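Tutorial handout. Part one gives the primary structure; part two gives the three-dimensional structure as C-alpha cells.
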Amino acid sequence: MKPLNPPIKEWRNLRVWIIGASSGIGAETALLLLRKGARVALSARKTDALEKLAQDYSDALKLTLDITIPSSITAARDVIIQQWHGIDLILIVAGAYNEMRADNFDLNIANHLLATNLHGVFNCLDATLPVLLKQGTGAIGIVASVAGYSGLPKALVYGPSKAALINLAECLFLDLRPRGIGVYLVNPGFIDTPLTAGNDFKMPALMPAADAASELVKGLERGDFHLHFPKRFTTWLRLARLLPYRAYFALIHKVTGL
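Part two.
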C-alpha cells in the first residue's frame, strides 16, 4: 500500500527545524537526525539547553524562541531561510502539561496550556506555512498525544488541547498533501520526559525518550501520516475509543481506578 507521505530515504543535508528541542522527544530526535547527517535547527525557550545539545555539532543552528510569542518564531524562521534558503521538515514538538480534574479547575493554568499546546502551534503554522507553500515541497509534523484520542482522567485541559491538534493535522493533510507538502501526526503514549516526571500514577508502557525518537524517525522514513508509540499501549487506546460510551467509561475507570 502506498504511504500517505513520501518516504524519507536519506537524511544527509536535509534541512530540519525542531521546535521544542531542549528536552525529551524533541532533543532525542534532534540528536538522532544530527547523527544521520541532517542539518538541524534547534529551537526552544532554554538557550543553555540548546547550547548543550549542540555542543558536538558546530553546524547545528541554535535559535531561542517562545512559541507563545509569534515574533520570536518569525525571527527564527528568517534566520533559517537566510542561511539555508528553505526548510525540508518542520517538527512542532513543544508543549506543556498539567494534571487537572473538574474539582481543581484553574482558568489561569488552562489558558497557559491552550496558549502553548494549541495557540503556539498556530503561531508556528503562521510562520512556516507560507514558506512550505511557496516551496511547493517539504513537510510539517505536529506532536499531539494519545490523550487527545478520547477523554481521560486528569487531562481536563491537556486532553482537549491535544485532541484539537489531532483534528488540525488531519485538516492540514487534506489541504497540503495535494500541494506536494507532507503532514505527520505524532501521538506518543507515556514517554519518560520532564513533562511526565511529576506524574503520581502508573504510566503503562512508559517509553524512554530515545526510543520514542527512534520510532518517530522510523515513521517519517516510512512516510506514515499517523505515528504512534509504543504501539502495545497506543493501539489499545485507539481501539478503546471505538467502544460505546458506557463500556468506554467503565473500562477507563477499571484501568485507572479514577
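Part three, for discussion. The radius of gyration is 18 Å. The CA atoms of residues 143 and 186 lie 5 Å apart.
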